[in-house]
Amino acid sequence: MKETKQQFPAEEVTLPSQGLLYPEDSPLRNGILEMKYMTAREEDILTNVNLIENGTVIDKLLESLIITPIDFNDLLTGDKDAVLIAARILGYGADYTFNYNGEELNVDLTTIKDKQLDESLIVDGKNEFSFTLPTSKKEVTFKFLTHGDEQKITKELKGLKKLNKNSSNDLTTRMKYIITSIDNDFEIKTIREFVDNEFLARDARELRKYISKIQPSVDLSYDYEDQRGNVTTIDIPVGIQFFWPDASI
């Protein structure tokens, strides 16, 4: 598989995290991934009905394009977003048109900026950061999620849906994976009980805002101006159509 990938032209992609949160022995540590250009094989992946239906089509596409020998589950979600943008540019160019409120908008994907990590926030090279909840005053530590974490969250949410079809546990389930300690207590049981029974909504919102502020990723915001001159910040939509706008899927 590796030899097959290296037969094609490749480019280096700089990761927003700069590789600073990965272990010293990880290929991701240098903050760069090598990716090959998209071929007809990847278009086959994009149109695979089974992959589309089970929601893994984008992941399979990126795994096929990445040449650097990594464990895809180790990739931080913010870095994965950067790889996603690079894959689209390498495959179909930087010009991307999408629909918003019945209007076609165009964006040059090369103008999308990385949200890089503030190195001063890193302690001992770990993917772990601290925050004081403003209302309860509890000290929490948290991490940035990886693709592997996202997979576990998805699996847990599916299990909860089977138990109760009307359940809505997305935010709390995600927080149980993000938070790594409460007042220096790192027990998983403590964290889950806190999220379920003590986590105040205002504290949860402030923690999410802080994470969004410091998390290395790409800035997918777009300032849309309507005919009256009103400006609304929206997110550039990313999905199967992001890669193949003409695909009848």
Describe the protein.
- This protein is of the alpha+beta class and 249 residues long.
- The chain has helices at residues 2-5, 40-46, 49-53, 57-65, 77-92, 147-163, 170-178, 188-197, 201-214, 240-243, and strands spanning 10-14, 32-36, 95-100, 103-108, 114-115, 129-132, 139-142, 179-182, 217-218, 221-225, 231-235.
Principal-axis shape equals: globular
Fraction of residues in H or I helices: 25-40%
User: How large is the radius of gyration?
Assistant: 20 Å
Number of E-type strands: 11
Which sheet architecture does the biggest sheet show?
3 strands, antiparallel
Give a quick summary of the entry.
The protein is an alpha+beta fold and 249 residues long.
Write the layout of secondary structure elements.
Blueprint: H1 2-5, E1 10-14, E2 32-36, H2 40-46, H3 49-53, H4 57-65, H5 77-92, E3 95-100, E4 103-108, E5 114-115, E6 129-132, E7 139-142, H6 147-163, H7 170-178, E8 179-182, H8 188-197, H9 201-214, E9 217-218, E10 221-225, E11 231-235, H10 240-243
Antiparallel strand pairs: 1-2, 3-4, 5-9, 6-7, 7-8, 10-11
Helix pairs in contact: 6-7, 7-8
Which labels suit this protein?
249 residues, alpha+beta, 38% helix, globular, disordered N terminus
